[in-house]
## 1
Amino acid sequence: MNIGIGDLTDFQQANVITCAAVYIDGQKLITGDIPNLDGMVNFGRVFPRVLLDNLVLEAARKQGVNVITRCKLEHYTVYDNHVAIDCKQEDKEQNFKVKLLVGADGSNSTVARIMNGKRPDPQHRIVAVRAYFENVNLVPNQAELFFTSKSFPGYYWFFPMGPTTANVGVGMSLENFPKTETNLKELLNDILENDPSLKANIGTGTMVGKVEGWPLSIYNPDATIVKDRLLLTGDAAGLINSINGEGIQYALQSGRWAAESIISCFAANDLSGSALKIFDQKVRREIGFDMSLSNLVLQVIRNRNLNPLWMKVLKIFIAQAKRDERYTTICGGILAGMVPTNKAVTVYFIRKSILQALTTAFYGEGGIFRFIKQFTVLGSIAVWQVLLQRKEYWKWFKGILKGAWLSLRLRNQ
Ligand SMILES: Cc1cc2nc3c(=O)[nH]c(=O)nc-3n(C[C@H](O)[C@H](O)[C@H](O)COP(=O)(O)OP(=O)(O)OC[C@H]3O[C@@H](n4cnc5c(N)ncnc54)[C@H](O)[C@@H]3O)c2cc1C
């Protein structure tokens, strides 16, 4: 998508990432290049959000957008032919009268909260925290992703931002069971102290500023994102992919779809909720199925009792990815947000995963007998847990059924 910032010097100077390494339980298992896919660049860029946001803002200004800064929307009221908005700019009240209000105000959107009369459901929230470090040891073009039972369902990352600076963070879903007791800032500190690979990366480096964190809203197909004279985009509409926590591309894409929908609604002189539904339908058609599949995966792995199993499953994916380029492209592409999640529900992907699981069971370390022993131990613990945590298991199972149903519904739209 061209948003007019690709040629700017600041953008060009942002650190380029061409490959990624994946660690499971402290062990580096694979390093692979960012996939080469038609119509996409095979690299990513890491730079501070404040800089990216500023570039986008300046690009909008150049297009003639009137930007009013330091102005916080506090309330609004929708009337038949306009929306009255109450804002606070520094300490002064500011009032605006507009034809249509677009809520692009992030995961804690005030526009969405007033529109829906409630805050987002914790079931549809993930949390992420990050810190910037300088004087660290790194491979400048290599992003590193870490999966451990401690941070699952979620992962932590080490993203080089320059020759000696990095963005280090961790993201996880909010509603897991058993409940996650540690808060994410503590978890990040724990990981920084105890993960040997991350510790080696940080070396004698120091944190710049403090650990910052935000809750993020993931996709909820039942949420309302348009109403009379109101429309939500980006995080405000919950357009975060729950598998990788990415939302920048969906914020940009939904901004474009919103603009196209609004132009046609203005042309028809109809800004009612039913006319603006074209935007809602576009979002569902383009990313609804995929986002729902990601939510389904998240619902399955919310069960932290099974974290040892999920770690084994990840190792199976990696073992297969190591010897099959097409499979690597799907796994790496999904993780990097370049390949839709639905590519993992094809006959090819499932067949390869099952075959690799069988190979691991029969020919893995210790052979089939060790596998049967581990399977029996894990299975017995799981049965015991089901008996002890019947309510939670039932809720988890119902969540999976609901997720599968929503995915099927959106697939057919
Ligand atoms: C730690 C962390 C790491 C992340 N890493 C990645 C990543 O690597 N890749 C990726 O794709 N995504 C990542 N994300 C997610 C990504 O940041 C969001 O999906 C993206 O920023 C969404 O853009 P947005 O414009 O919808 O919302 P935001 O970027 O949140 O922007 C909302 C804007 O609205 C303003 N605002 C809020 N309330 C009001 C109000 N009442 N009145 C006026 N203005 C208001 C805010 O100041 C802000 O400028 C990460 C998130 C976190 C927390």
Note: The two ends are 24 Å apart (CA to CA).
## 2
Amino acid sequence: MVKLNKNCLQGLRCPKCGSCEPLNVTISLTIPIYDDGFEFPRQEDHTIYWDDKNPCRCDECDYDGDVSDFNVKEENDIRRDELSDSVD
Ligand SMILES: [Zn+2]
């Protein structure tokens, strides 16, 4: 039984292998950078935004796509190994 995401990844899972997390979402984040480096902000200090167009990769099987590709509604939408490696 797969644990479905109910929080910030609600409705998202890998369309290839069905994995729910972690999903590697490429985001941009504005942080203060000083000449001698930066301190990565604590998660609670920042809200991170992304939308359906952000690149996303499954940690489990390396499936690559946009976040929208991971919006899998039904179990039947999981294509598992039927996907080829071809790009759009
Ligand atoms: Zn996957």
Note: The chain has a mean pLDDT of 83.
